[in-house]
Amino acid sequence: MTVSILHRMTGVAMSVGLVVLAWWLGSLSLGGDQYDTFVGLMSSLPGRLLLLGWSFAFFLHLANGIRHLAWDLGHGFERQQADASAWLVLLLAVVCTAVFWYLL
Amino acid sequence: MHRRILVPALSSATGHFIAQRVSAVVLAVLGVWLVCSLIGMDSFEHGSMRAFAATPLNSGLLALLSVSMAYHSYLGVEVVIDDYVHLPRLNSMAQLLSRAAHLVLALVALHATYQLGFGT
Question: What pLDDT, on a 0 to 100 scale, did the predictor assign at position A97?
Fold first, then answer.
């Protein structure tokens, strides 16, 4: 149940992140100065925290989205399995976020 | 009701369900692709990032990613608005605003990826 509300929250967070994706691509196409302004803002502490949040949102929404697709196909809907996969989703989201920033 | 205006073929609940799942699968694949691409980059400076985004394949994938994300986000926000905004007029206004915002963001991203891949 908690993961269900997290799915919605991370989804809405990434809807806001869509603005940043469009801004990133737009500034990249406009030229070096605009792009550097974008990178400068995203490299600041608030910018980094936002990026950290969006990366976590991405991995959680992805992992839980796969869980939902498995349910659609009729897998894992038993109470016990659903509880276990909820924990797996949370764990995967944290681990993937950590690995992503370590490798970046 | 508002769905019929923008996406006539997907006005039913089943259409909504399928569209959300199809865009989800596309986003899962392209999202992982972007994450792996970012990890594989030596630098995030303008030159190297532009070189990445300027190949026809990558600019095409970035365009597909942006449009799928805008569409998937639009479908998700639509449900969220319906769940929390119950006053009919306010609901319609919120849906209109969301539709316009998603459309503009998709167009901005499409234009940018086109410029990156095929612009001068």
Answer: 98
Contact A16, A51 (CB under 8 A): no
Alpha-carbon gap: A80 to the closest alpha carbon of chain B (Å): 25
pTM, rounded to two decimals: 0.92
Q: What is the pLDDT of residues A48-81, one digit of tens each?
A: 999 999 999 999 999 999 999 999 999 988 989 9
8 Å CB contact of A28 and B49: yes
Shortest Cα distance from A49 to chain B (angstroms)? 17
Give strand ranges (E) for chain A.
none
Model confidence at B4, pLDDT cuts 50, 70, 90, reads: very low
What is d(CA B110, CA B56) in angstroms, rounded to the nearest whole number? 13
- Taking the C-alpha atoms of residue B6 and residue B8, their distance in angstroms, rounded to an integer, is 6
Q: Touching check for A76 and chain B: CB below 8 Å? A: no
CB contact under 8 A, A29 and B112: yes
Which CATH number does the domain A2-103 belong to among 1.20.1600.10, 1.10.287.3240, 1.20.1300.10, 3.30.1510.10?
1.20.1300.10
Q: How far is B9 from chain A (nearest CA, A)?
A: 22
